[in-house]
């Protein structure tokens, strides 16, 4: 039976960064903003009286009305910036915020925290205007903290993905776990498809050119058949189809989103 993943290392990193940093940028996935918010980080920031800004990354993957709606909700608790490193959304707003902060102290350290694969490294590279952090669609590519000089007196603290005590299957739905490492990819893909069927079923039609079924497993079978993932005896290779769906979700190919 699957056990929740231990996160002692991540918790110690989060606490250290929250102690060292003057400001925290919490990066979340704009498609699933509430699921990728880290309540532990936010609570620790409040306890330490640190300014926390939520950066809704991958804002280019959701409609503007959706992004604005989410922003309005979260702003009741924290400042929010809509951001996309690919479409150059929100960069000026972040730059202005950093400049404003940099006038207040001689040296400013900004901690960049969030779940694996929410785009922390892409965010840092966009601010730095060159590649200084490793980017990959594979969750968990950043190893250990790194101090990156942004301006004369401004430093960014890049960190590995910070996760709490959660199951691999739940992390996979947040794009924070590599599908190839899942023990039960078919079950996880069914959970994801079920959610998409409830929130935006047309996303599956757009991505795979199939008519989704009300049953997640039947929809997965249709996807496998469409992709010609067939094994001996003409059966659909459901595990291969499941991993494909989960990778497409991680890479932003399935245009679904929800609150």
What does this molecule look like?
This protein has 259 residues and is α/β, with parallel strands linked by helices. It folds into 2 domains: 8-158, 3-Layer(aba) Sandwich (Rossmann fold); 178-250, Conserved Hypothetical Protein Ylqf, Chain: A, domain 2, CATH 1.10.1580. Helix content is 41%, strand content 14%. It has 10 helices and 6 strands. The protein has helices at residues 8-20, 39-47, 64-74, 91-102, 120-128, 168-173, 185-199, 202-208, 216-226, 238-250, and strands at 23-29, 51-57, 80-82, 108-114, 146-151, 154-158. Strands 3-2-1-4-6-5 form a 6-stranded mixed β-sheet, sandwiched between helices. A hairpin with a 2-residue loop joins β5 (146-151) and β6. The longest helix is centred in the C-terminal third of the chain and has 15 residues, at 185-199.
Helicity range: 40-55%
Domain module count: 2
Give the neighbour order of strands across the main sheet: 3-2-1-4-6-5
Return the CATH topology of the largest domain. Answer: Rossmann fold
Function: Required for a late step of 50S ribosomal subunit assembly. Has GTPase activity.
Main location: cytoplasm
InterPro entries: G_CP_dom (IPR030378), GTP-bd (IPR006073), GTP-bd_ortho_bundle_sf (IPR023179), GTPase_MTG1 (IPR016478), P-loop_NTPase (IPR027417), TRAFAC_YlqF/YawG_RiboMat (IPR050755)
Subcellular location: Cytoplasm
